[in-house]
Predict the structure of Acyl-CoA dehydrogenase NM domain-like protein.
Amino acid sequence: MSPSATNISESFIAPPIKSASHQTTAYESSDSSVYKPHHEAFASEGLPSSAASWSQRAHEVSRILARDAAARDHANKSPVAEVSLLKSSGLLKILGPVEYGGGGQSWEIGYKAIREVAKGDGSIGMLLGYHLLWSKTADIVGTDEQKDRFQRLIIENNYFVGGAVNPRDSDLIIQEDGNKLIFNGSKHFNTGGVISDLTVLEGVLAGTENHIFAIVPTSQPGFEFAHNWNNIGLRLSESGSVKINNVAVPWSDALGWDAAAKIPSPDVLSIPFATLLLPTIQLVFSNFYLGIAQGSLEFARGYTTTSTRAWPYGGDNKQSATDEFYILERYGNFHAHLLAAEALTDRAGVAISDIFVAHGKDRDVSARTRGEVAELVASAKIVTTDTSLKVTAGVFEVTGSRATGSKVGLDRFWRDVRVHSLHDPVAYKNRELGRFYLLDEVPEPTWYT
């Protein structure tokens, strides 16, 4: 018997999650009740109503997360509580349409919120960034009807969205079954999937070269999470592997497809507009790299001013570490580079926002315009990668040996950046940008450009 397609508009209850051995297993998750006072406060305040108030809300969430970030990093529990905080704060809705209860903000503001949350906890900043990208997938590759339907579903229900779309793995295979599509396959990485309400799937229709995106409820038997994320950094991002077993999707939920004719809609899945998903998420990366680095410097500043001791054998001895030349020099250098990285990243954020405003309705963007934006994003990716690695490693030079204690947790910033900056080699971004500058060639869209 073939599986029946899930009606995504129906409510659903999460079943027990199964491990790779198919045995029901309890995995330790953080407790949402620890944030009860904050949930109540956010509910009382309601959603922010301006760009400035959204930035302040992101700052409040970052401050809450920063208080025990090192302890939560060590505990490595599934971030149920942390995602509940993102939900009650309203940050999951920041880009959503106002008519459905969203914040109505642009990507420019969304990126800054990601960055701010990442200052307090890189994993949760990453989860917010991925959610915002996946929650807008239908806006970029869906029909107008799908765009409206899925935005309403996500925003009105305050859903958290994950994505099983790791391009380096084999594509999920999609089989037709009457008015349904059946997805099968596996992905080594599925960020946030375990604690998501919805998941974006992507695969290739069997016998064709056609790729199809679909948004489906995560809480169904066809999702088999391995619970195997135990890397050195971004430990609360739940980026482990998942198997997709006979997940059925109505043809009407195939994003950007004509369900009756069962063909891609050429005016929706147009190149290059549909490929704007890629520079959009690349800039998500840059923003949480930058946020993590900024958070590391703020954390280090607090440690240096309260705990770092002056070096007594330098020949120009000072009473306080904050008077030492090399410490002042390092802080000045780190601060300058972060300001420069922030300016470039903000410029790219404006460019992404502008291209969606200018072309979001007609979906008619030239390869040149798309390419220029992608290369501005690539520039930000290069600079934020280099700068964040430099700063998160260098802060130990200005805090001292005692700052390497596991209870201090200063190492988490470097570990977080180091893990994700290997996502796609920045060397290829340098080469790509070199061809653009030297030869005036805009890049061909790929899964990473």
